[in-house]
Amino acid sequence: MSEVFEGYERQYCELSANLLKKLTSASLLDGEHKKQKISEVKAGVDDAEALIRKMDLEARALQPNVKAVLLAKLREYKSDLNNLKSEIKRIASASLNQAARDELMEAGMADTLTVSASQKDRLFVSTKRLNKSSDRIQESRKVMLETEDLGVSLLQDLHQQRQSLSHANNTLHGVDDNIGRSRRIITSITRRMNRNKWIIGAVVTVLVIAIIVILYFKLSK
User: Fold this and answer.
1) Alpha-carbon distance 11 to 185, whole Å?
2) Going by C-beta distance under 8 Å and a sequence separation of 6 or more, which residues neighbour residue 66?
3) Torsion angles phi and psi, residue 113, rounded to 5
4) DSSP 8-state assignment for residue 30
5) Which biological process annotations from GO are given for this protein (predicted)?
6) CA torsion 177→183→188→189, rounded to 10°?
């Protein structure tokens, strides 16, 4: 496993545990202290998502068998982070409803909460719309991040394919060089064989002439 990935993973685990503690304490608070704590948790969630993106990029650059294991682990981290976001929304929604009730109480309209059911329904509908708008914003942001990650992944794949093609091209050049050297060696051997053939022919001719001369002198005697 990559040391860089392990470093990011340690940071994420520490940050995730800290966010859970902060969220638990935020659920026990009221008013501005609760809003401040929720804001801190949301900022921490952004940091956690950034760490997950870094881990994802690092995992995709590793060997296929290692990459598959790490990507499965990252899917679990993303699921845990989505659950944390849902809990943040629930606590923030409860805080928003409480804040709306407090404002009505301060304005001397507390009786409308119990007397006027229509106003209570409108308040509920408004809160629901706000929650839906927040969900849509989060989904849009999630799609944007996934698109960004996909683009980075495609660029990495293209870079790897380019390196593979470059390596194959260098290999072909090496094969061409070896073929050229082999051809030169064969040509040199052929030339030497031709020279040796002429030398052997000349030696044989000289031996035949010498034998003929010797036989001639012996027969003449």
Assistant:
1) 62
2) 1, 59
3) -70, -30
4) -
5) protein transport
6) 130
Q: Which residue shows structure tokens 């994802």?
A: 56
d(CA 29, CA 32): 9
What's 107's DSSP letter?
A: T
Query: For residue 140, which amino acid is it?
Result: S
- What three-state secondary structure class fits 178? helix
* Closest to 49 in 3D by CA, of 101, 93, 12: 12
Q: Is 108 left (phi over 0), alpha (psi -120 to 50) or beta?
A: left
Check if the beta carbon of residue 40 is closer than 8 Å to that of residue 28: no
pTM reported for the whole predicted model: 0.46
How distant, in Å, are the alpha carbons of 151, 206, 207 from that of 195? 66, 17, 19
User: Per-residue pLDDT for the chain (221 aa), expressed as one digit of tens each?
Assistant: 678 888 888 999 998 899 888 888 888 877 788 888 888 888 988 998 999 999 899 888 888 888 888 899 899 999 998 998 888 888 877 766 655 555 555 555 445 445 456 666 777 777 777 777 777 777 777 777 777 777 676 777 777 777 777 777 778 777 777 787 878 888 888 888 777 778 888 888 888 898 888 888 878 76
CB 53 within 8 A of CB 27: no
Pair of tokens at residue 56: 């994802």
Euclidean distance between CA atoms 72 and 154, whole angstroms:
19
Would you report the helix, strand and coil content of the chain in percent, each value rounded to 5? 95, 0, 5
Structure tokens at 69: 């294991």
If you count them, how many residues does the chain have?
Answer: 221
